[in-house]
Design brief:
Two copies of one chain form a homodimer. The first copy, chain A, is of the alpha/beta class and about 290 residues long. Chain A is about 45% helix and about 15% strand. Chain A is built from eleven helices and nine strands. In chain A, the strands form two sheets. Chain A has a six-stranded parallel β-sheet. Chains A and B meet through helix 7, helix 8, helix 9, helix 10 and helix 11 of A and helix 7, helix 8, helix 9, helix 10 and helix 11 of B.
């Protein structure tokens, strides 16, 4: 960036200063693409940490104060909290402000936000496909979005100039931006993210509960199991909201998955080596094909 | 090692020169703990690669020749091939030779090998808990077993001196050696390794087959999904044999897992946020506790 030019975003307000919101702030700061970052949240400890780590320049627990004169508002709270936040901040947004989000389910977010948009304020639904199992401002880092995809799901109400700015913002943060229709986003994410998380959570709970011989099985868990179940320690509230708001697409994928798992179990039960080999080969081919 | 002392193992014969067998050979060579390594396999290309990479010093496709005068024979073929290999090599083993293996299921291996042991030849059932999704001699590397656990499952027939030598061998390769009863090993591994693999294979197949809207869903798979399904590209033949030979313990774990997954699905279907939160929190606690 040319230091004599104004930054892309004068004032950024991040509501929910955790891994997702904090990392965006750090990425934009590192690129000189933001003038000031205001953090909003409920936990003062976390906000103080965010300020100490340079994630935000100042903070407030009052969202209506935090959004004052903000050019861009990034909503990074759990999905089910977004509607309330939007209702609360709507009267305090400046004309021309752009609201965007990082929610993992887009239909529910669009429905929760668009009805409350004041005239002259724009909303761009977004979803950066990045994350770790950690949460809180302390987990944020400037390169989280490097070489990741960010999906934007504009609707018929989305302003073209606001969309272009949000696209540019994510590119500056290091992401490849793709656009996708809202419903397609929710189906794709149900398959490649939401289902795998449900599978991992179930796996850890099933193995953890298996104590038939008091063998402390988890104690033996090797590298593979640990890597495999890493995502099962992701933020429970965030995943409750995802499961509830992408219910239909997720249930469809879970049913699809259950059929495959049951087929595999049947082949093991009947000792069908041919079918087992075919099942494992097919999986290996799919997996190898995406790399 | 003191260069003036003879190595722990004079001649090592590795039957099945892939990731597991090849990496043991490289680890022992790196430590100066082996005099000569003879590789045995069916694929000449792979054996030539192994020799070129210094994994083995020489090779043969004839196991009866390969085991001649070997002090230690490491069986690293898929489990269902072990019985045939043992029958074939038994008459050619020198008195005092030690046979050990790296199979992921121990009851089936013990039953396949112990009946064919000639007098004066010892068998130590073993299972190094290590691996990657890659296979073949090219995938082998000397540090695969560093800081990994190796489980030995001696039976009432296991010779104490042979057990001590195999223990020492794995320690030299960098592993922490633990002993476990055969049936316990198979239950623990069903839970922490075999079940997770079945889950991953099913997940990749379910997502890969979900093409209802021709959306090329796998194309969007992000870091999380890739990590999660990495193990679904492990060697299909090896996993067929594991599924068939640890059938009972694996089916029990699969049934346990199905119950948890069905419970989760039910909670999503009924929109029970409290139960979902509890489910995800419990998983996070279990997972965090093992780290």
């Amino acid at each position: 960036m040319n230091a004599s030019q104004p930054p892309l975003i004068g004032r950024l307000c991040v509501i929910g200063v955790g891994l997702i919101g904090g990392s965006l702030a750090l990425a934009l700061k590192a690129a000189g693409a933001v003038g000031e970052v205001v953090g909003v949240g409920r936990g003062v400890d976390n906000l103080q940490t965010a300020q100490r780590l340079g994630v935000v320049d100042r903070f407030t627990t009052d969202a209506t104060i935090g959004v004052a004169d903000a050019d861009l508002i990034f909503l990074a709270t759990p999905i089910l909290a977004l509607g309330d936040v939007m209702r609360q901040i709507a009267p305090h947004l400046k004309p021309g402000a752009i609201v965007t989000d990082g929610g993992s389910v887009k239909r529910a977010v669009v429905d929760a936000i668009e009805p409350f948009l004041p005239a002259g304020v724009h909303f761009v639904p977004g979803h950066p496909i990045a994350g770790t199992e950690k949460s809180g401002a302390e987990a944020a880092f400037a390169t989280l979005y490097h070489n990741r995809r960010c999906i934007l799901t504009p609707t018929t109400h989305t302003d073209a100039a606001a969309l272009a700015l949000v696209r540019q913002m994510w590119q500056i943060a290091g992401s490849e931006v793709v656009e996708m229709e809202v419903e397609k986003h929710d189906r794709v994410l149900a398959a490649i993210s939401h289902l795998p998380h449900m599978v991992a959570y179930s796996l850890v709970n099933a193995v953890g509960a298996y104590d038939r011989y008091e063998e402390n099985i988890l104690e033996y868990s090797a590298g593979g199991f640990r890597d495999f179940t890493r995502i099962a320690s992701s933020d429970p509230t965030m995943w409750r909201d995802i499961a509830l708001t992408n219910r239909e697409a997720l249930l469809e994928m879970m049913t699809q998955y259950e059929r495959f798992f049951a087929e595999l179990k049947q082949d093991i039960d009947s000792g069908d080596g041919q079918k087992l080999l075919a099942f494992f080969q097919k999986s290996k081919q799919s997996r190898d094909a995406i790399l």
